[in-house]
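Hi, here's the filled form for the chain we discussed.

Project: internal
Contact: R.S.
Residues: 267
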Amino acid sequence: MTGLVRSLNRLRNIAALFLLAAAAAPALAQDGAAPGDPMSARLSAEKVGDVETGTFSTGDNNLSFSLQPYGERYLLRFTGSPEDYVLTVERVLLGGRILRYDTGVTALRVSVWGGMTLYTEAAPGGLPATRVGDDTSAPRPVVSHNDFVAALTDEESHLAYTRQLHLRFSADPRILAGTDDNRGLAFDAMVSAEAGIERLIGAPSGRQALSRKFDMVRIVQSDKPGITVSGKTLLVSYAPAAGAVGRASSREVALQLGKMLQIAEAG
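And the returned structure, exactly as it came back:
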């Protein structure tokens, strides 16, 4: 019994020491913080891991991009590209953030102190990104009926000329007859689909597999985004009510096409 009593007393003493340390910790942290310490100020303002928006550069490789808030998500656009990627945000250990594409692949990582790293196929280990200014991207242009019809033809010509891939592009009549806003969303879905096709045909046998399976790409409205097949037509669905979230990115299009055709997407 004496040994048991001693053990219990020892545990009580240890617990008491932990309680005293916990009570003293806030005061020690406050007293130990140097006036004007940026780390302390950032923590006290509860800005740990905040995602900074604007335009960013990765340095000598001339790769730059913009990041804009979009509800609880963010829009990522690389300079020179017409596609906006919708990124979801995930909190990670110690207060950092990970921003992911709709495929689940990491696009950006924000450290606990706000440092940003961009991940690409060419640099899977990550590239440090530095904010260089506010986002000054021009507003998305209005897409008229004639603009959309011309864009369908342009996509056909682009793939035929640059990739020797002959696919016709079309859209549901209600898209062509709809509002400018709806056509704008359909246009974005078409851009992502075409870019996804280009990603896939970079893989061995990608062009041959696409040519055998499809002769048309058709943009259609639906309740959710995705791709399906009807005969030799690739149906690219977008959900107008969901805005930018209601379409699959080029990465997701390439991923789904790769599974459909049993082709590994080229890196």
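Let me know if anything looks off before we file it.
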